[in-house]
């Protein structure tokens, strides 16, 4: 390890790695954006990184460095680094843009990664700091890419048509001249595939699930959190056990029972099952929150002659509103996203939820931009809720299983 | 008399306990009905020789018609046993003859008339039974006789043995499940998926948490973005992955070919070892946000003074992570590991949507579905479900040991 504690060596290696990261990123981004062929030249990138990656004691301004570096790189690379189109020429706008971005990202990134790294011998601290800054930069790019790409593909596919998709699977550039024609798949979904009904069904079922879950879990959670009774400890411990029973194990007998009693293909049947899958976790989340509320307020209420139920209604619930919001969101999300039970218990297209409706689009006869448009329709509402109420949502997710 | 503390429950305590059970009752009842009852049912069914077709009990199907052959009217009942091999006993057919229609000739053997109308009874209707009952009638108004006769629906009753409720049991289902090398194969796939999926999601989540454990502009946005895979509907993201990695027109393949990584398109979800790796990667991708969220929450509650002290002592960043952060995170990591382990073990939708259990990705949960619905053998599916449940019982014993230690529950 001692060997690496030299500024120029660490710098060169980090430089090469950073160059590879940036070049690959830009090649992927440009490919996805334009559909043209971009290929990072790994050996050249390593070389450029090694040569220019070393820290300088007196760095020049980026304003001078970036164009200089881009020019040199463009000249020497024989257009290998930024754009290796089979016949793309170096002066095409996308090639120039990518070379410039590459230079800026590389030099700017290196400037941040080095901080005030000397080019001479390093202490362990300085070395590790530089490595960590590189890893951080790499991490941001990596995580953003893996999260964003599937969603990007989902949205963009839904806006294309079959020929465009087959002709060049990489080409996600949009033909904006079509105007509203871009949303053709969505119009067809709602007009020919009844997605309006599915959307409404999903909404009704999810909201009712939330209401039923709260109605059941609030009294239960209060009892577990506040009242003394035999088996209280056992109860609060085993409530999560139910969460560990796999749905598929339950789905089998439920399917049989529903087939025999005619509850399949009914909202009632679905609403009998959905809340029970969410009640245990809601109860667990709420009892944790109720325990954190000051008991004195409730005692004062009891002293003043309120009954227990009145105390819950007038004191505990208003205090627990943020927790109720979190729980409601979380339960809504579970019900909205639920697929397996809807898939097994609903066969009648007029009763489909969104997830069940999407799975019915998964056939070779239906073009896949419809499938993706359906996915977008199911994803957007939950994302909007999530982003709008992110604070509650994150709290709900964390409280869902672990305290503090 | 010396004062002593009250023995047993005071009336107040008794009232409180009663209220508590009252408040818990709806939850307990619903959970018992939807979780406990089906679980018991699964055990019961797993010992039953039952297929998908047996869900509808066999019955005698009947069709009535009135024929007019040159003024001679005949009523005809066509009877059929819906099952090919199950006998139905004590079958009774009843039908009323409308006013103005009278029986004219001899009734067939099993039938007789009484005040209410026609009654035909059979002691036993064997499997695959088909028969016609015919007799002549005369009508006041032959023109409308057909409508009149068909207006009254014939009623038919019979008792058939119900495979679900009778007392025939078999261990055939379990033998089928355990026989052959397939079970070991399924178990192996399940373990690979569960272990690597769980550990992967934890490690990736830890990295993401380390990345965001500092405050900067846009931290909230990134945190929200990194939760997307978990929040989005499973069906939407699964299909996006399928389309992204499609072997014929997927963008991922196009990208890889263009970058020179591979010569020809890779069938990511269709080849034997690769499909299993891909579904595991998908599992990691979808559930890293959850561990990321928990780990981040724990990290932000670690006392910063400790790090200041470490700084004074000259600890390097990696040392601080290894000797300070990691031990602090061990609790949450072990809890998350167990929770995620069990949930990944239970996971069904992901693999079902991505590969349908093909190409060497059949886990135990997918096997339940395949046995019960693809091969239509519900008994065998239930047997696999029992195996899953027993595994889980084992896990949860272990889980509660660790959970009580870490959480003080």
Automatic annotation (TrEMBL), chain A:
GO terms for cellular component: plasma membrane. The chain crosses the membrane at residues 6-33, 62-82, 94-114, 134-155, 198-218, 239-258, 270-290, 311-336, 371-389. InterPro entries: BP-dep_ABC_trans_perm, MetI-like, MetI-like_sf. Gene3D superfamilies: MetI-like. It is a multi-pass membrane protein. The keyword Transmembrane applies. GO terms for biological process: transmembrane transport. Keywords: Cell membrane, Membrane, Transmembrane, Transmembrane helix, Transport. Its main location: membrane. Pfam families: BPD_transp_1. This is Carbohydrate ABC transporter permease. It comes from Palleronia caenipelagi.
Automatic annotation (TrEMBL), chain B:
One of its GO terms (biological process) is transmembrane transport. Keywords: Cell membrane, Membrane, Transmembrane, Transmembrane helix, Transport. It comes from the Bacteria. The chain crosses the membrane at residues 21-47, 191-212, 224-244, 274-297, 321-343, 378-400. One of its GO terms (cellular component) is plasma membrane. Its main location: membrane. Residues 187-399 form the ABC transmembrane type-1 domain. It is found in: Cell membrane. It is a multi-pass membrane protein. Pfam families: BPD_transp_1. Belongs to the binding-protein-dependent transport system permease family. This is Sugar ABC transporter permease. It comes from Palleronia caenipelagi.
